[in-house]
Amino acid sequence: MYNFDQIIDRRNTSCVKYDNLVNVFGSTDILPMWVADMDFQVAPEILDAARECCEKGVFGYTFRSDKAKQAFADWVARRHGWQVDTRWLLSSPGIVTALALGVRVYTEEHDKVMIFTPVYPPFYAVVKDNNRELVCSTLNVENGHYQINWEDVEKKLKNGVKLLIISNSHNPVGRVWTKEELTRIGALCLQYGVTILSDEIHSDLALFGHKHVVMASLSPEIAAITVTMMAPSKTFNIAGMMNSVVVISNPELRRPFEKELLCLHLDLGNIFGHVTLEAAYKHGDAWLDEMVRYLEKNILFTDQFLREELPSIKMILPEGSFLLWLDFRATGLSHEKIQEKLLHEAKLGLNSGTDFGPEGEGFFRMNIGCPLETVKEGLERLKKAFK
């Protein structure tokens, strides 16, 4: 029904992924498969909503309407079985902004904030840049599957951690945390008085039968210590609209967060962000379902290609999202040498695993949220450099 094979030329649009290659990789002749947005055209209903807004020709101050809030509430009820009151919803320009606000609101300088590593680089930044103490719990890899080190987690939580930031689903390793895992995390945070910031931006992109579980849906008690952050940006490829949703059921947590939003004048958002959010959550089901099936096809193609053509490069099969965590360690090359070959021989732009923490040594992140032909070209470039 939708054409995910369509090649769209995104160059010369001030696009970070394509037009910032010189600053990131030092060259323009790179196939970019790095920054986490997709190369697919958005759902027709989103385009129609943006066109209708554009044609009015007036772009004044706007706010998130009650209809848009209800569209989000209906979406999470329909897709995740999570019942929310629209009075719990706050706005933020993006998830990273919301994470930084959460760190500032729920901790003081030098307080301990915990993350699971390797993880999305801004998790480190929002802690360190706000002069908090970073506490890392490294995920264990068992048979190509990342697991939480429960003994380490409890030891660190009870040693004065005030805030836990969790990536659910986890970027970059592709874990969709199970209900049992999340319940155990929630129980430990309740036990030790730890507030949870749950980044659930990839929540709608569970793959291969895995089911996303909203942390705050587990129990009223866990909801009361959880700030949930979601957005249509990854799901519907509208990251440039700068519009995300913060859900806080506990008024004792919601009031200070909202105060900080208002203090920094971050609450209004932009007109196109609001209309596309509403359209996506009202009408995006069919497009999303088909797009996820397309992602699964890309992932399975990549897995087979690597097994047959490049067995020294291992792929951690993702349970969610369009990001692959590739393990180059069996090549026997240093991380620096791998990166050199990627840039100068493969002419391929991937995210360095060390950007996600020291545990990413020998790993690189590949974005396969693009037409299959682009995936094929990227893999052939890998083959040329590493065969």
TrEMBL record:
InterPro entries per UniProt: Aminotransferase_I/II_large, C-S_lyase_PatB-like, Class-II_PLP-Dep_Aminotrans, PyrdxlP-dep_Trfase, PyrdxlP-dep_Trfase_major, PyrdxlP-dep_Trfase_small
Cofactor: pyridoxal 5'-phosphate
Annotated keywords: Lyase, Pyridoxal phosphate
Coiled coil spans: none
Pfam families linked: Aminotran_1_2 (PF00155)
Entry EC number(s): 4.4.1.13
Presence of keyword NAD: no
Domain Aminotransferase class I/classII large: 38-382
Keyword Transit peptide set for record: no
Record-level Gene Ontology MF annotations: cysteine-S-conjugate beta-lyase activity; pyridoxal phosphate binding
Family the UniProt entry places it in: Belongs to the class-II pyridoxal-phosphate-dependent aminotransferase family. MalY/PatB cystathionine beta-lyase subfamily.
Protein's UniProt name: cysteine-S-conjugate beta-lyase
Origin species: Butyricimonas faecihominis
